[in-house]
Design goal:
With about 425 residues, this protein is an alpha/beta fold. The protein is built from twelve helices and 16 strands. The strands form four sheets. Strands 1-3-2-4-5-6 form a six-stranded mixed β-sheet, with helices on both faces. The longest helix has 21 residues. The radius of gyration is 21 Å and the shape is elongated. About 55% of the residues are buried. The N terminus and C terminus are likely disordered.
């Protein structure tokens, strides 16, 4: 599979496009389905002592159901590869609803689960969390809405805060200290805005101009930013960088407006988030050369090849979360029962090895991941700074709901709206 198709854009933009038309509709689980170290997809019942539940909207129609199927299969693949016969996966259909998630969590605990992986939707996580807390069972969820993290709930997903921190930090490293920004007025933008301001302040920089916009009304905010950039240059204090977070849904309009409004991206470095990684971005000359953060694609390429070989279809980007989550369970499975999934061990300093490199679950329920920096090039994205060998120390950022992508699909899947 081409590296272009296995990069982070497959998660944030067209989340399921890599699945292909041949995928079957997601199946529903009428009861616990157990998996051990057998081949992925086998249904042999295990006598394993350690039970780990996987909650996903298996019976949901359309895209959520297809995602759920991929999460289930990726979890099975991880268990097969680790050949850990002590772990039994209990797969539960949470039906994609808060009530379904609550019932699935209750059934999982009744069946003896000591760790819950999932749910996918933020509202489902909120419904399952109280049940898990009462039973003192930790949850490693797949939503990226930061508001549902904490209190024994860990979000394994990519979140916007670290992306913003990484790209602002890299820009400062390259001498950029005066920033302008165009930020969308949706949940994603509301999550990114305070993090961006805080990151610039910590870097010793200045936010010269910041405008927010609705997706159908980008012209006037972009015009205001253009005027601020021109005024700053006339005063001898030019703007160094323009931050435009998000993906295709936002950047297609902005890419057309930048040259129209005489924002010279040869002088003002364009910065973005992981949503910039989509092929059509290069049709806008003003966005070629932009910098954005993301995981090194080699890890996902390898995972995708293994997944495709096992199931005959390419995985969506989010499938790697379930794979990583099972590997967390396996890494801690040999510890004593009363310590195995304790907060101290889940948030251990050395972290865990995942598809995208070493990462750490943090005490606040978020995840700290190493990110590379990419440049948009006509021939495809190019890494201009490698990810750190280890996940960086977490920065203190403004709290708020998280949003990792630029499309309505991505925001809706994670229940931001």
């Amino acid at each position: 599979m081409a590296a272009r198709n296995t990069s982070l854009r497959t998660w944030r933009h067209g989340l399921l496009s890599v699945l292909g038309a041949g995928l079957l509709a997601a199946c529903s689980a009428s009861g616990p389905e157990t998996k051990t170290g057998s081949l992925p997809g086998d249904t042999a019942v295990s006598k394993a002592s350690l039970k780990v539940a996987v909650l996903a909207p298996l019976s949901s129609q359309g895209q959520p159901g297809l995602i759920a199927k991929s999460l289930k299969q990726a979890a099975e693949l991880a268990l097969f590869e680790r050949d850990n016969t002590s772990i039994q996966l209990i797969v539960k259909d949470d039906k994609g609803t808060p009530e379904g998630a609550r019932i699935a969590a209750e059934e999982s605990i009744k069946d003896g689960a000591t760790l819950i992986l999932g749910p996918l939707f933020a509202k489902s996580v909120s419904a399952a969390a109280p049940v898990a807390r009462t039973a003192k069972v930790p949850v490693i969820a797949f939503s990226n809405d930061r508001q549902v993290a904490g209190g024994g709930v860990y979000l394994l997903s990519f979140q916007p805060g670290p992306e913003v921190e990484r790209i602002v930090g890299y820009a400062k490293q390259k001498g950029k200290t005066r920033f302008a920004a165009l930020i969308p007025q949706d949940a994603f933008g509301k999550a990114v805005d305070p993090v961006f301001r805080s990151a610039v302040a910590r870097a010793g920089g200045t936010v010269v101009a910041l405008e927010t916009y609705a997706t159908n009304s980008v012209l006037e905010p972009t015009r205001k930013v253009s005027e601020a950039i021109k005024a700053a240059e006339a005063q001898g204090t030019p703007v160094d960088a323009l931050f435009v977070p998000g993906g295709l849904e936002y950047l297609d309009s902005i890419g057309r407006l930048l040259p129209m409004l005489q924002i010279d991206t040869a002088k003002v470095q364009v910065l973005g988030t992981g949503g910039m990684d989509y092929p059509a971005i290069t049709r806008h000359k003003a966005l070629v050369g932009a910098w954005y953060p993301g995981p090194d694609p080699r890890g996902f390429n390898e995972f995708s090849q293994k997944y495709s070989k096992s199931y005959g279809e390419a995985p969506p980007r989010i499938a790697s979360l379930a794979y990583d989550a099972v590997n967390v369970a396996s890494a801690l499975s040999g510890l004593p029962d009363d310590q195995r999934f304790s907060a101290a061990n889940l948030t251990r300093t050395q972290g865990f090895k995942g598809v995208d490199g070493t990462y750490r679950l943090l005490p606040d329920g978020t995840t700290d991941r190493p990110l590379a920096v990419f440049a948009v090039q006509k021939s495809g994205p190019a890494i201009i700074e490698q990810a750190p060998a280890e996940a960086p120390a977490p920065a203190v950022t403004a709290s708020g709901g998280g949003g990792g992508g630029g499309t309505s699909l991505f925001n809706n899947i994670f229940n931001f709206k």
